[in-house]
Amino acid sequence: MFEPRGHDIMSGAIIYPAYREDCDFAVIFIEVSGCLPMCGAGTIGLVTAGIEEGLITPRVEGRLSIETPAGRVDIQYEKPGEFVESVRMFNVPSYLHAADIAVDVAGVGRLVVDIAYGGNYYAVVEPQAAWSGLDGMSASDIVDLSVKLRDALAKICDPEHPDDLRIRGVHHALWCDTPTSDNADGRGAVFYGDKAIDRSPGGTGTSARMAQLHGKGRLTAGETFRQESLIGTVFEGRIEAEVDVGPFHGIKPSVGGWARIIGHNTIFVDDRDPLSHGFQIR
């Protein structure tokens, strides 16, 4: 993921044999900050590329079960011909961890955020007095504000997953606003890694957003929520059922979308190269 082979916003997926007998294969998602418990957009891309390139052989056509660090993720995909046209992932149980957390952010003032889990922990921010919304903000503005928010939250909030204490901490931010498209119910910018903005609507982000809306009584089981990204693409989220996550009441979300293969890359590692393992510019 590091330069010169990758870049700050690149995500990757490493395929492994599954330990679980009920899964077709296992995956670890990586980015410049390390490994992730789960990645929704990465899952949609992985399934599409893996099937089209023959890297994955489903036991049942049209269905997959994937072992991730966050748990089992079930997949339905449509492949009417040569290409995978759509993928729907049935994500891990998601929930609203904490509501209405007030945090003082340098240069901004007091923000009120919700902490929600959708495979990663997110600070979910909606327009309010100290932040009017996404309009007029550049990607670099969002990154700068997200870093300040994450640093401020780290001093007062350190959520732990009730079923796996290795999953902890708020490393992602989701800045929410009204959609620009009639084909969406909301718009969001997902911040992750050190300084990355997701180009997709966010799979775990959409799951966390639905969990937040459900926890606040604004979205019910069976309803859909179409999330628009900063570049206008849309994921269709749906609350499949209500579930308990430890002491928390949450949801079983699914997220549908599509991906396309844009190229093939062969990476070389030459031990004579002093930068053979890559570098980061901070």
Task: Explain this structure.
The protein is mainly beta and 282 residues long. It is 15% helix and 39% strand. The strands form two sheets. Strands 7-8-9-12-13-15-16-17 form an eight-stranded mixed barrel. It has a two-stranded antiparallel ribbon with strand order 10-11. The longest helix has 16 residues, at 139-154. The two termini are 15 Å apart. The model has no long low-confidence stretch (mean pLDDT 95). Belongs to the proline racemase family. It catalyses: trans-4-hydroxy-L-proline = cis-4-hydroxy-D-proline. Its EC number is 5.1.1.8. Keywords: Isomerase. It is an enzyme of class 5 (isomerase).
State the secondary-structure class. mainly beta
Strand and helix order? EEEHEEEEEEHEEEEEHEEE
Strand order of the largest sheet: 7-8-9-12-13-15-16-17
Give the percentage of residues in beta strands: 35-45%
- Work out the radius of gyration: 19 Å
Largest β-sheet summary: 8 strands, mixed, barrel
Summarize the structure.
The chain is mostly beta strands. Helix content is 15%, strand content 39%.
Write the layout of secondary structure elements.
Blueprint: E1 11-16, E2 25-31, E3 34-36, H1 40-52, E4 63-68, E5 71-78, E6 86-90, E7 94-105, E8 109-117, E9 121-125, H2 139-154, E10 160-161, E11 164-168, E12 172-177, E13 186-192, E14 196-197, H3 203-215, E15 224-228, E16 234-245, E17 248-257
Parallel strand pairs: 2-4, 9-12, 13-15
Antiparallel strand pairs: 1-2, 2-3, 4-5, 5-6, 6-17, 7-8, 7-17, 8-9, 10-11, 12-13, 13-14, 15-16, 16-17
